[in-house]
Amino acid sequence: MTHETKKTADVRSAEEPKVAVMVTDLGVLEALSAIKVEVLVQGTPLVFEGRRLRPCESKEVHLLLEAALPPIVASGEGRAAGPEAKPEEPRYDFSDPGFLRRQEENKRKARAVALWSAFPVFRSKWGTNTHSQRAEPKTSEEITAFIESLQVDEDVLDVLFRALTQRMVSAAEYVGFTFDSSSRPS
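The structure assignment produced for this chain is given below.
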């Protein structure tokens, strides 16, 4: 087989459709929730094994991410007054320092909770740390304090969090839908 022929064969095999698996047991989905994330740190490849977040865990993460709301700036504030000035609708102040601080704190809490839930390596560190005399952390604040006290680069935490929050599911087009010429609009 020549090099060109091999390339063509590889392309053909990559284009073959995958056979759908009939889900008769949720164990199929549970097996697919496993996740491996490869991270390159200072030239050293590392692999983190974990699982996708469960719905109750995802809910907590999403609520934390959306919890901080910016203050509302009252109508007319920050505009020059004059005879042609029209009253403004109230608007959010996304540059408010208090809002930016709360937003960053909530992002860090969400990231810590997600990593704690999904990657056993973080939970196992609890047992080897000085914290092992206490019960596992329960609140997002306790989990965040623990995760951020570890000697782990911020970029590694961010990459792992992005891998967890990335959408992995899509719906097949027209599942269970049939179309024939008689159903076509005229």
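Interim note for the steering committee: The chain is about 45% helix and 10% strand. Confidence is low (pLDDT under 50) at residues 1-13.
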